[in-house]
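User: C-alpha coordinates in, sequence out, please.
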Protein backbone atom coordinates (compact mmCIF):
# COMPACT_ATOMS: atom_id res chain seq x y z
CA UNK A 1 0.00 0.00 0.00
CA UNK A 2 1.46 3.35 -0.96
CA UNK A 3 1.40 6.70 0.80
CA UNK A 4 -1.22 8.05 -1.59
CA UNK A 5 -3.45 5.06 -0.88
CA UNK A 6 -3.52 6.03 2.80
CA UNK A 7 -4.00 9.75 2.27
CA UNK A 8 -6.90 11.81 0.99
CA UNK A 9 -6.26 13.73 -2.19
CA UNK A 10 -8.03 16.17 -4.45
CA UNK A 11 -8.72 15.40 -8.04
CA UNK A 12 -9.76 18.71 -9.54
CA UNK A 13 -12.79 19.75 -7.48
CA UNK A 14 -13.27 16.24 -6.10
CA UNK A 15 -12.07 14.96 -2.72
CA UNK A 16 -10.96 11.34 -2.86
CA UNK A 17 -10.80 9.39 0.40
CA UNK A 18 -9.19 6.01 -0.39
CA UNK A 19 -9.58 4.58 3.11
CA UNK A 20 -13.34 5.14 2.88
CA UNK A 21 -13.65 4.23 -0.81
CA UNK A 22 -15.41 7.54 -1.33
CA UNK A 23 -15.38 10.43 -3.78
CA UNK A 24 -16.94 13.72 -2.69
CA UNK A 25 -17.74 17.15 -4.07
CA UNK A 26 -19.77 19.83 -2.34
CA UNK A 27 -22.11 17.89 -0.05
CA UNK A 28 -22.31 14.80 -2.29
CA UNK A 29 -20.45 11.59 -1.52
CA UNK A 30 -20.25 8.53 -3.73
CA UNK A 31 -18.97 5.19 -2.49
CA UNK A 32 -17.03 3.05 -4.95
CA UNK A 33 -15.85 -0.54 -4.91
CA UNK A 34 -12.36 -1.16 -3.47
CA UNK A 35 -10.90 -2.23 -6.83
CA UNK A 36 -12.31 0.90 -8.47
CA UNK A 37 -10.58 2.99 -5.81
CA UNK A 38 -7.32 1.12 -6.37
CA UNK A 39 -7.50 1.87 -10.09
CA UNK A 40 -8.18 5.54 -9.37
CA UNK A 41 -5.35 5.74 -6.83
CA UNK A 42 -2.89 4.11 -9.23
CA UNK A 43 -3.83 6.57 -11.97
CA UNK A 44 -3.49 9.42 -9.46
CA UNK A 45 0.02 8.23 -8.64
CA UNK A 46 0.82 8.77 -12.33
CA UNK A 47 -1.05 11.99 -13.21
CA UNK A 48 -1.02 12.88 -16.88
CA UNK A 49 0.84 9.69 -17.80
CA UNK A 50 -0.61 6.99 -20.00
CA UNK A 51 -0.85 3.86 -17.85
CA UNK A 52 -1.16 0.65 -19.83
CA UNK A 53 -4.03 -1.72 -19.22
CA UNK A 54 -1.54 -4.47 -18.48
CA UNK A 55 0.16 -2.43 -15.77
CA UNK A 56 -3.16 -1.51 -14.14
CA UNK A 57 -4.25 -5.15 -14.11
CA UNK A 58 -0.88 -6.23 -12.66
CA UNK A 59 -1.01 -3.63 -9.90
CA UNK A 60 -4.67 -3.89 -8.91
CA UNK A 61 -5.37 -7.58 -9.46
CA UNK A 62 -1.86 -8.85 -8.61
CA UNK A 63 -2.30 -12.61 -8.23
CA UNK A 64 -5.68 -12.94 -9.89
CA UNK A 65 -6.35 -13.70 -13.52
CA UNK A 66 -8.76 -11.15 -14.98
CA UNK A 67 -9.56 -10.08 -18.50
CA UNK A 68 -9.47 -6.54 -19.90
CA UNK A 69 -13.25 -6.49 -19.56
CA UNK A 70 -12.96 -6.23 -15.77
CA UNK A 71 -10.74 -3.17 -16.06
CA UNK A 72 -12.95 -1.62 -18.75
CA UNK A 73 -16.01 -2.04 -16.51
CA UNK A 74 -14.11 -0.60 -13.56
CA UNK A 75 -13.07 2.52 -15.51
CA UNK A 76 -16.59 2.86 -16.88
CA UNK A 77 -18.02 2.82 -13.34
CA UNK A 78 -15.46 5.41 -12.22
CA UNK A 79 -16.49 7.65 -15.11
CA UNK A 80 -20.13 7.33 -14.05
CA UNK A 81 -19.18 8.23 -10.48
CA UNK A 82 -17.48 11.39 -11.75
CA UNK A 83 -20.36 12.21 -14.08
CA UNK A 84 -18.32 11.81 -17.26
CA UNK A 85 -20.32 11.57 -20.45
CA UNK A 86 -19.50 8.91 -23.05
CA UNK A 87 -17.06 10.29 -25.60
CA UNK A 88 -16.44 13.45 -23.51
CA UNK A 89 -14.18 12.25 -20.73
CA UNK A 90 -13.09 14.99 -18.35
CA UNK A 91 -11.53 12.75 -15.71
CA UNK A 92 -10.17 9.53 -17.26
CA UNK A 93 -9.16 9.43 -20.90
CA UNK A 94 -8.90 6.21 -22.90
CA UNK A 95 -5.83 6.10 -25.10
CA UNK A 96 -6.75 3.52 -27.78
CA UNK A 97 -4.51 0.44 -27.84
CA UNK A 98 -2.44 1.91 -24.96
CA UNK A 99 -4.34 2.41 -21.70
CA UNK A 100 -5.75 5.23 -19.59
CA UNK A 101 -4.70 8.69 -18.51
CA UNK A 102 -5.96 10.83 -15.64
CA UNK A 103 -6.84 14.30 -16.92
CA UNK A 104 -7.42 16.25 -13.70
CA UNK A 105 -4.66 17.65 -11.45
CA UNK A 106 -3.91 15.69 -8.29
CA UNK A 107 -3.20 17.47 -5.00
CA UNK A 108 -2.45 15.83 -1.68
CA UNK A 109 -4.62 16.89 1.25
CA UNK A 110 -2.75 17.16 4.52
CA UNK A 111 -4.49 16.18 7.74
CA UNK A 112 -4.08 19.79 8.92
CA UNK A 113 -6.23 21.03 6.02
CA UNK A 114 -9.15 18.90 7.18
CA UNK A 115 -11.01 19.36 10.42
CA UNK A 116 -11.35 16.12 12.38
CA UNK A 117 -14.52 14.10 11.74
CA UNK A 118 -15.86 14.74 15.25
CA UNK A 119 -15.54 18.51 14.74
CA UNK A 120 -17.32 18.41 11.38
CA UNK A 121 -20.14 16.36 12.93
CA UNK A 122 -20.35 18.80 15.86
CA UNK A 123 -20.62 21.82 13.56
CA UNK A 124 -23.16 20.04 11.40
CA UNK A 125 -25.30 19.16 14.43
CA UNK A 126 -24.98 22.70 15.81
CA UNK A 127 -26.12 24.17 12.51
CA UNK A 128 -29.12 21.82 12.42
CA UNK A 129 -30.10 22.74 15.99
CA UNK A 130 -29.84 26.46 15.17
CA UNK A 131 -32.00 26.05 12.08
CA UNK A 132 -34.63 24.09 14.01
CA UNK A 133 -34.73 26.60 16.85
CA UNK A 134 -34.95 29.61 14.54
CA UNK A 135 -38.51 30.86 13.93
CA UNK A 136 -39.71 30.50 10.37
CA UNK A 137 -41.03 33.63 8.71
CA UNK A 138 -41.26 35.30 12.09
CA UNK A 139 -43.61 32.65 13.49
CA UNK A 140 -42.19 30.73 16.48
CA UNK A 141 -42.59 26.95 16.47
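Assistant: Sequence out:
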Amino acid sequence: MTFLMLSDFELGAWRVRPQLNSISWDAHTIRVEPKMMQVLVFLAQHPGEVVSKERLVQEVWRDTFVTDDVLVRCVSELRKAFGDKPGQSAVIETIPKKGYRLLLPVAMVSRRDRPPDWLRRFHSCSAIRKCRSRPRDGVPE
